[in-house]
Amino acid sequence: MKFFIDTANLDEIREAYDLGVLDGVTTNPSLMAKEGISGHDKVMAHYKAICDIVDDNVSAEVIATDFEGMMKEGRELAKIDDKIVVKIPMIKDGVKAIKAFTEEGIRTNCTLVFSAGQALLAAKAGSSYVSPFIGRLDDIGADGLELIEQIVQIYDNYGFATEVLAASVRHTTHLLQCAEIGADVVTCPLKVITGLLKHPLTDAGLAQFLADHAKANG
Ligand code: E4P
Fold first, then answer.
1. pLDDT above 90: residue 218
2. Residue 27 Cβ contacting ligand 1 at under 6 Å
C-alpha cells in the first residue's frame, strides 16, 4: 500500500518523507490556498519545491473545467517535473482530458469521485489513479468505505490498471480499513500517518524497559 500525504505544506511533506514511508503527495486548490500560494509563477514554483522533496507522485490539480483549458494547464503542470500527476475533476470534459493525457503518456489522478460509476468511467479513460473521497461521503451520512470496497471489486473483475487512491481520509481507522479492503493508495494528513505509531502498551513497555535498564546499570 502506498502512503501519500494530503497537504501543500513543505515542512509536513519533509517530516513525512524523513519518516521513510512516504510514496507521494496530493494537493488541491484549497490546500494550496491554505498555504497562501497564489499566482501562476508561485504555484508552479511551489509544485517544483514539493517535487524536490519526494521521490515521485505529486498530484497537481487543474483549475480549468473545459477540455482545452485542462489540456493546456495539465501539459504545463506535467512539464514542471516527471513526478507530477495531473489531477482532473470527474466531469465530462475531465474524462475526455484523462483519455487524451493517457494517450500522451501523462499520468492523471481523477478527483472528486463519489460513486462506483464515476470510478468505472475514470478507469475506462485510463486514469493512473482514481480518488474516491471517503470522509466527505461519511459527512453526508453515506458509507465512504463501502465505495472503496465496490471500486476495488470492480477494478479486480476487469483487471483495470487504475490505482484506487482513497482520499479524504480523516483518521487511522479509515486508513486501516482501506488497507483491509485492498486500496492501492491512501492519502491523508500527516497526523493520520503518525497516529499509526501510537499504542499505550508500546509507551508503557518502553518506559518499563528503560527503568529496568537504569536500575540494573545505575
Ligand atoms: C485529495 O486528493 C483530496 O483533495 C483530499 O483528500 C480531500 O480531503 P478533504 O475532504 O479532507 O478536504
1. no
2. no
- What's the rounded mean pLDDT across residues 26-43? 97
Q: What distance in Å separates the CA atoms of residue 90 and residue 103, rounded to the nearest whole number?
A: 18
- Is 29's C-beta closer than 6 angstroms to any atom of ligand 1? no
Q: Which residues pair with 133 in a beta bridge?
A: 167
Atom of ligand 1 nearest to the CA of 135: 10
Residue 187: per-residue pLDDT = 98
Q: Delineate the domains of the chain, giving CATH numbers in brackets.
A: 2-216 (3.20.20.70)
Ligand 1: centre distance to CA 42 (Å): 22
Gap between the Cα atoms of 128 and 78, Å rounded: 14
Query: In this structure, how many other beta carbons lie within 10 angstroms of the beta carbon of residue 160?
Result: 19
How confident is residue 52, by pLDDT bands cut at 50, 70 and 90? Answer: very high
Query: Got the DSSP string for 75-138?
Result: HHHHHH-TTEEEEEESSHHHHHHHHHHHHHT--EEEEEE-SHHHHHHHHHHT-SEEEEBHHHHH
Q: pTM for the full model?
A: 0.96
User: Diameter of the chain by CA atoms?
Assistant: 72
- Confirm if 5 and 193 have CB atoms less than 8 A apart: yes
- Phi, psi (rounded to 5 degrees) for 122: -60, -40
- Contact 108 CB / ligand 1 (< 6 Å): no
